[in-house]
Design a protein that fits this description.
Length: 595
């Protein structure tokens, strides 16, 4: 069993101790009919109807009816407290999963984002549903079993000695079967995650799959996982059927044994007919149904919950600090904020040696044998026709794509040997579509610089051109997101630009990160980064971006050319054509945001 997973669930449930105590209290009232049923039936027969006192017998039956009403009231009153116990469980588990996923992703230890999404959308809600079912079903069953055993032991211990052995045999056989089911259930859950991951990969690359005629290979990857799922589902179905037969036979044997031993019990143990009937009532109406419900629920919901909790334990276990050597010391408890900005490599130069990359083994290289030195503090613009490989170079420089050959050196160290968290804190990439998450404007601006003061925010906002937008939104504590103000694409870009300007990253790459801004706002933002300490690499959207740069790297079908604006105008027909294209008036992009 997953002890850590059950510990996580127990910890979250203990936080709801007050409603749990109320659930237990009303469960005692709910179990009252099981406690009193056999004893009241025995007295109704022995002291009432069989003694020719029908009013006395009816009185005991009326008392049993009152016990049933109290039990029904207990069930009704228990449910609001049960909801108060389990409903917050989903949010608490999602909090744990998000925190652990982010920590592992930042440390480069998470194997697949799609699997993480599958966990977030499935594990937390699945755990809540299973825990609800378990508490709703197992809880009354346990209370009824205790009540029935106490009633039988009080009424006639000999009946318990006859009824319990076949019941225990059925339970033992069910436990063995459930252990086999648990193994298949865990494999089934892992297979479902594999199917989600493989399907997401194939669908995301569908055009490439079709272009490369790789449909059979893609289908085979998913078919293999589906075949595994089908195989284990069938095995689980067979084992479940076997468990059902075992329980059905085992739970009828106590009644048959008690009926067969009735004569012996009355002769040798002087049991009255009322006691025999009371014992039958305890066994048939309370004990056997409760044990059957308990075994069925534990064998289905309980096993499934155990597998899910084991997966939950794996998903929420934080890596050891030894696995995070380059992360700054900080509190990793859920909900804590970073204590300090991440470390960066000081004054990093960028050197590319014979860098080559292609999108397939038979495809033409997008980057071919590129040699480039970008000293710290340089301002480089990258230009070229659309689709030529400019954004690919940005991905190579940030390590999100690995080169086929060659090497990238950052501060004299191979980029492949630098811990991902350190490389990401040293090189900041702003893509064309800016990322703004649900939270305050301050949180969006400072999550790369958690120690930033209001003065730092004001300085970066003024430099980049965000101040007017910040004031219009209502200040840095304005909530952004679905319920907040609607932002244009240009306004989102201003927020992303200010965020990186505020960060300690000494190398900044703008991958058409100002394309939704008007020319004046773009010039102001680029000037802010050019005067900021560090290196600026701009994948140019307009010719003015290239003109502002110290050097320009031109991508063409024949390779790359490095030079200044004046040098390339004199030596490169392609660059001259690009300048002419950029200088031609054209319709501006929608939703511009001005500084």
């Amino acid at each position: 069993m997953s002890h850590h997973g059950w510990h996580v669930l127990g910890h979250e449930l203990r936080r709801r101790r007050r409603p749990l105590l109320k659930v237990a209290a009303w469960s005692l009232a709910e179990a009252l009919p099981s406690t009193a049923s056999g004893a009241l039936i025995a007295r109704a027969l022995d002291q009432g109807f069989l003694a020719h006192r029908p009013l006395t017998g009816c009185g005991y039956l009326a008392a049993f009816a009152v016990a049933m009403l109290i039990g029904a009231l207990g069930t009704r009153q228990m449910f609001p407290h049960l909801a108060a116990t389990v409903e917050p469980l989903r949010d608490q588990l999602v909090h744990r999963l998000v925190h652990a996923t982010l920590v592992r992703s930042v440390a480069g230890l998470d194997g697949g984002a799609d699997t993480s999404v599958s966990r977030l959308t499935g594990l937390a809600e699945h755990t809540r549903q299973l825990a609800t079912t378990l508490l709703r079903t197992v809880r009354p069953a346990v209370f009824k079993i205790i009540a029935a055993l106490a009633g039988v032991a009080t009424l006639a211990p000999a009946i318990a000695l006859i009824a319990m052995p076949p019941l225990l045999l059925a339970l033992g056989a069910s436990v063995l079967i459930m252990r086999a089911i648990a193994r298949h259930q865990r494999t089934l859950l892992l297979t479902q995650e594999t199917i989600a991951e493989e399907a997401t990969t194939v669908v995301g690359a569908l055009r490439d799959v079709i272009a490369c005629a790789a449909e059979p290979r893609a289908r085979a990857r998913i078919d293999q996982a589906i075949d595994t799922q089908v195989r284990h589902t069938r095995r689980m179905a067979r084992l479940t059927a076997l468990r059902t037969v075992t329980m059905s036979l085992g739970f009828q044997l106590p009644l048959l044994a008690l009926l067969a031993a009735t004569g012996w019990l009355t002769r040798h143990h002087a049991l009255t007919p009322g006691q025999i009937m009371g014992g039958l009532t305890y066994i048939s109406a309370a004990l056997v149904p409760a044990v059957s419900s308990l075994v069925s629920t534990v064998g289905s919901t309980g096993l499934e919950l155990n597998v899910v909790l084991k997966r939950l334990s794996e998903a929420t276990t934080l890596p050891d600090r030894a696995d995070l050597p380059e992360m700054s010391p900080q509190d990793t408890s859920p909900g804590s904020a970073p204590a300090a900005a991440p470390r960066v490599l000081p004054s990093p130069n960028l050197k590319l040696h014979a860098l080559t990359f292609a999108y397939g083994p038979h495809a033409k290289p997008v980057v071919n044998n590129l040699h480039l030195h970008v000293p710290h503090g340089d301002h480089l613009a990258i230009v070229g026709p659309s689709g030529i490989g400019k954004s690919t170079l940005a991905q190579l420089l940030t390590g999100t794509v690995t080169a086929d050959s060659g090497e990238i050196l950052l501060a004299g160290r191979s980029l492949a040997d630098i811990p991902p968290c350190l490389a990401r804190s040293t090189i900041a990439l702003i893509p064309q579509e800016a990322y703004v998450f649900a939270g305050t404007l301050r949180e969006n601006l400072t999550y790369l610089a958690p120690d930033a003061t209001d003065a730092d925010l004001d300085a970066s906002a003024d430099a980049v051109g965000l101040r007017t937008l910040a004031e219009r939104l209502g200040g840095y504590d304005t909530l952004l997101g679905p319920e907040g103000p609607q932002l244009s694409s240009g306004e989102r870009q201003l927020i992303a630009l200010t965020r990186v300007h505020l960060s300690p990253a000494p190398v900044v790459i703008l991958d058409e990160a100002t394309c939704y801004l008007d020319p004046a706002a773009e010039a102001r933002a680029e000037q802010a980064f050019a005067t900021r300490q560090g290196t600026l690499i701009v994948i140019a959207h307009r010719i003015t971006s290239a003109q502002r740069a110290r050097r320009i790297l031109l991508f063409s079908e024949n390779g790359t050319t490095l030079g200044t604006h004046t040098q390339l105008l004199a030596t490169s027909p392609l660059y001259t054509d690009l300048v002419g294209h950029w200088d031609t008036p054209h319709t501006p992009r929608p939703e511009p945001a001005t500084a």
